[in-house]
Request: fold
Amino acid sequence: MPIVLIKTSELNAELKELIALLVKCVGPRGKLQMLRSATGHTIMTSVSARLCPELQRIVAHPVLTFLLHSTLAQNQRFYSFKLIFLLVKLFV
Reply:
């Protein structure tokens, strides 16, 4: 398994972007988000359950990829996105 060096400044910037995107989708006032990958795949949604699988295609940072995988695994197992709410509360 390769060792990945993580720059804290890069992680903080990308984590803030991810949290800002997720905050806009959480709760009854969630807003419509449009994501576009480098390959041109576009999705519009306001549902975080649909947003996370699509974000896995776009996000390249290993820590953020791990967080998204963990969130999706929790949703598949417990039908809950409480990990997203925890991330939002911790970093906002």
